[in-house]
Design brief:
The protein is an alpha+beta fold. It has one domain: Ribosomal Protein S8, Chain: A, domain 1. Helices cover 37% and strands 17% of the residues. The protein contains 3 helices and 4 strands. Helix 1 packs across helix 2.
């Protein structure tokens, strides 16, 4: 059984509110199914400065962590073997060690440590 799930939240170009709803449903689903890490593909934004989904969802990640819904998260820019939370996630979801975004500083993705 996989301990990693990937969701492309930017698919269909949702509003931030719709993306938040999708994310909440997916986090709940991960809790129920024993998924340890959720890779969220939110995109970087077409304006070159960071899109609405990227910045808005990252604020939500902080809220989720504060409220205990997730244990932590790593932005794509931080996701590497040198980042403590990333290392914890790789420990619980070993398939992350082969993730193409590991060490690539990809601002269009984030990784949520679910459980």
């Amino acid at each position: 059984m996989s301990t990693l799930r990937v969701i492309t939240i930017k698919e269909g170009m949702p509003t931030l509110e719709e993306a938040k709803r999708r994310l909440l449903l997916e986090v709940r689903r991960c809790h129920g199914e024993g998924i340890s890490v959720l890779k969220v593909i939110h995109g970087y934004g077409s304006g070159g400065r960071g899109g609405v989904l990227r910045t808005g969802l990252r604020r939500v990640f902080t809220e989720y962590q504060r409220d205990g819904d997730i244990l932590g998260y790593a932005s794509g820019e931080d996701f590497s073997i040198f980042h403590p939370v990333s290392l914890e996630m790789i420990t619980v979801a070993p398939e992350l060690s082969n993730d193409p975004d590991l060490g690539r500083s990809n601002p269009g993705v984030s990784f949520l440590w679910i459980q």
